[in-house]
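S2.1 Query sequence (LuxR family transcriptional regulator)
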Amino acid sequence: MLLADLATRCPVLVVLDDLHAADTGSFQLLSHLARRSRDRGTALRFLVTYREEEVPEGDARRAAVTALLRQRLAVREEVARLGERDCLAVARDAVAGDAVAGDGVAGDGVAGAPDGDWARRAWELSLGNPLFAVELARGLAEDPGGAGTGRAPEGVRELVAGRLARLDPDARRVVEALSVAGGEAALSELLDVAAHGLRPPLAGHSAAEALERAVAASIVEEREVVVAGRPEEGLAFRHPLVRLTCYERLSAARRRGLHAAFARAVAHRRPDAVDTLASHYTRADDPRAADYLRRAAERAAGLYANDTADRYYRDLVARLDVDAARARLAHAHVLRRMGDYERAVEVLRLALAEFERRGEHDDTVHTAALLAETLGKTSAPAAARRVLREHPVTPDTAPAPAASHHLARSLVLCVRGRYAAGAEATRQALAAARRVPGTAGEGLIARAYALRAANLGLAGRFDRAREAGDRALPPAEAYGDPTLLGSVLSTLRENARRAGRLHEALETGSRALALAEHSGDPTAAAFERANLAELRLLLGEPEPARALAEQAVTGAEPYDAWCFPYALTTLARVRAHLGETAEATALLDRAEKVAAAHGDRQAEHEGRTARAELALHARRPEEALRALDGHRADAPVLAAWAELLCGRPADGLRLARAELTRARRTGERLAEIEARLALATCLSRLTRTTEGARELARAESQARTLPYPAGTRRATWARQLLPPPDEKTTPPPPR
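Output structure tokens follow.
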């Protein structure tokens, strides 16, 4: 025999692939050769691959393999799925081979891209199955956009269809029912569907045997599934592409019927499974879908699963048999929390139009307020003012919508820089909110006090801002909403910073950041990171400040929302502190444009002061004064330093003394130290050396006591300016 003769000269290995495609005679021949090789001690071996699921139980071919294993003539090796690197290699080789063969599957650019998106997608979808990887690679290379269609490539569909066709009708019907469940299902629910949802029904031993045949064919597998938080016996497809292909092959009528059957089974066994029921009722086109979509959306929103809630609300408002206006209102809250303000504006405009059409005054005023707030967080403050003017509060307006209106007006005024008017609007909001009973009233009161604190603080009335901020916390905690509590803590963080309690501010800001992340609000999280970065800078920790500021910019940039200019300005301050002047200047240029586009006066102020700080550091006081032109009263300490360095210490003294008086009256410890440092240096330059030294010593003592490391550094620099005023050089301000 040829193989035996070859084996006498050297060891021979015969490789046989896809043995499952061979007939019984071929299996018997292989068994004969294996026994003969053992008996004669011939160096002849066989490496055989086959898919066990293709050889059913009771088949003579399976018996032949079992006999070889029992006689120890064969060793069984399970072939694991490919890892990512090997799967990518298989995908590339398959596509490159087709291109070389002239099949026209892939062009040179695709075949030559070792880690192209199509290859990586083939790995992700195949889960390491080499057969699927090859077909996916070919399909995706030919049509790279096909991965997003939700359909398996044609080659995969043909492979799976062939395997499904080999199932008997009952096993195939059970597998089709499982495909509707979404890939896995509890055994009890699947048997319910088989008994009551299939036509003809499949129950008892017949259903169990059909499932066993599907498992034996390696289409599905028995697997523990979690149902209502408890593990149960279940079944699942062995590969998601098999499930997808099976589901695609069903007619629309079959899908609806099976989804309805699953909905009945789930409603009977676990009526609180609103997500599952919403999915099945929607796909069954059942009128009950609206109620379950609403419940599923509200549940997801309550868990801050914002993306899921967004999807449910979109499905809900698309149905004609629901109150779309109220659903849109709830949807807008989720979108705002996601930082998707543009979509929130669109949804709120539709809700507002519907409420107006129905003549529902209170809902109209409330929705207009929410729309104005949302517009205020985008680049449309003028549109926000117009919405509020067009939908005013009247004597007939209920307290809750009236409070919402005044709160929105306060926010819009704050964005415009009209802080005194904004604080007055919160007084009107408080008057209305106190008439709203229950936790809803607590939430409105907390928002009113938080906004009042923000407006008063920005107006320089820190003493009153501190009181308002403290009064916001108890109702916010009673209301229990993380988004509201996070915004109140953000206000308290700023109050603690102004009071010089930097470590307390850091702790409070960290709590606010955690709540923003918990609620899924990326813009609030970016804002809190920017503020924490500034605190780290004040504490003399530039590297943690850099990391936080960079994260803030990364988190805010995709949304181009209200927090973006603040994040850019903070990163610019950090870069300036680290000596990266060019990068800081570029960031401030961007921040200035974004703030102007948003119409945010406070963001513009932050950019101006940061630019003035940068100019002073570069010893360009005239440039600092130009940056503050028309706004020197808003940054008196910076203006004082600039006047001093321009050779006008008397003007600097006047500005610094006024600011010191204000800061001491309101209790702003950081502002007091900064003003005292400028005052001391101006006094020294005016040859009032003793007074200057005394004020400088007081500032240094205050900075050490707080502690305030940034103030201590600035005091060291100021002390270098105390020699006689005819000194020719001036050291740069500290970073």
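Residues 103-115 have pLDDT under 50 and may be disordered. Strands lie at 12-16, 44-48, 184-186, 220-227, 230-237.
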